[in-house]
Amino acid sequence: MSQTIPSAAPGTVAPAGTPKKAALASFLGSAVEYYDFFIFGSAAALIFPHVFFPNADANAAIMSFATFGFAYIARPVGAVVLGHFGDRVGRRKVLMFTLVLMGASTFLIGCLPDFNTVGWWAPALLVLARLCQGLSAAGEQAGASSMTLEHAPDNQRSFFTSWTLTGTQGGQILAALVFIPVLALPDEVKYGIGWRIPFWLSAVVVLIAFFIRRTLHEPPAFEAAQKSAQIAKLPVADLLKAHWRDVLRVICCAFIAAVSTVFGTLAISYAKTVAGVDGTITLWLVVGANLVALGTQPLFGKLADRIGRKPVYIYGALSSAALAPLFLLSLESGNVPLMFLAAIAFFSCGYAASNAVWPSFYAEMFSTKVRFSGLAIGTQLGFLMAGFAPAIVAAMGGIKPGGWVQISIFTAVICVIAAVSALTAKETFKVPTKELGLK
User: Fold this and answer.
1) How far is CA 282 from the centre of its chain?
2) 11 phi-psi bin (left φ>0, alpha ψ -120 to 50, beta other)
3) Which of 118, 402, 410, 426 fits a 20 to 30 Å CA distance from 394?
């Protein structure tokens, strides 16, 4: 049985504007983390098969996509470690660490030698750097979502926490915009120094986010728990004792994240390989859909504060399953306006609903003393599906003519699993923050 944790220490009041500052810090931190993450995804689809696996022939794409997935192996490990410290020493300290680790890992990827220089050491070093990215990402969204939720007013938790995931759209937009001019370079430049520049530029974005995030305070609920000695000594043990069903539920719900990798990584490769769509066009699809999602996700967050987390989340999951084949078929049509409309419908008006709501939906299943750990471990185990989705579908023949069928079936299965899991959860949008996760 979890202990009741006060929402704030007696007389403690969050500084004015703190919910907005927490949301902004989460937005910028997620933008940095996922700029770096999506830069890797774009490169895995368009660059790395030539740079790190030139002798792999037909298997180059599968091997390149596998490096993308390696980060998702590290993420469950990072979730346990960073979740422990996030619940023990504070959300803010862990979030500063994840920001620096992601920035350093991404910068070093841009410095790696290619296959022609050091042979198989090149992809080995790439995997090592990717593992560090995964360790960082394991704590970023869980920490940012926990801190923003705990700073937010009870009746606006979904809206404020939606900005954490809206930051990921900002990161993906930046990644795509940076890669578009890289793809226009001559091959000798593009596969030489050109692809490295986006990775080096991450250092600038990290510095900006670092100085903003360092001014943020710990949430009153966490500070109150520290003062009253209600911090768990072993958060994972308490989590598995009191919330193991919620952890399993979050794992299955988190399968929905594979929709993002299908859209942002797998579809790029499919469009280029099968339909002959120029890589620049597919990246503009990513930019356009994510720009629209910057507006739709906060609206979905507001809606979830009015009608509940479950209906909005389930709508997002099921609409993603229904719209995936339409998006993939639009890529084969050669009709660019149709591609943009299908991309916006699929990603910005479908998947964005689940994406906006899950930070509050998952986090509200756990009490303050184990929220960071529960959110981190549950999501990162579920995100394994997202990490290896491109490699799995590619191995199934999804990057071949007619592969839209395999991709669509895969997407539908994971979306239905997520929707059914969400149905089993309790609705929490009317529960006060201090009572969340208490049995």
Assistant:
1) 20
2) left
3) 118
- Look up the pTM and report it: 0.82
Q: What is the pLDDT along the chain (439 residues), one digit of tens a residue?
A: 334 333 433 333 445 457 888 888 888 888 887 788 778 877 887 788 888 887 656 577 677 777 777 777 888 888 899 988 888 888 888 888 888 888 888 899 999 998 888 888 988 999 898 888 888 888 888 888 888 898 889 999 999 999 988 888 888 888 878 888 888 889 889 888 999 999 998 888 788 878 877 777 777 777 777 777 677 788 888 898 888 999 999 999 999 999 988 887 777 777 777 777 777 788 788 889 989 999 999 999 999 999 999 999 999 999 999 999 999 888 888 788 999 999 999 999 999 999 999 999 999 999 888 998 999 999 989 988 887 787 788 777 777 777 788 889 999 999 999 999 999 999 999 998 888 877 6
Residue appearing with tokens 């970023």 = 140
Distance CA 389, CA 411 (A): 9
Max Cα-Cα span within the chain: 66
Q: Would you state the structure tokens that stand for residue 394, as one six-digit string?
A: 């590619």
CA-nearest of 233, 342, 369, 222 to 288 is 342
User: In order of start, what are the domains of the chain with their CATH numbers?
Assistant: 19-220 (1.20.1250.20), 235-424 (1.20.1250.20)
User: Which of 391, 376, 143, 91 has its CA nearest to residue 258?
Assistant: 391
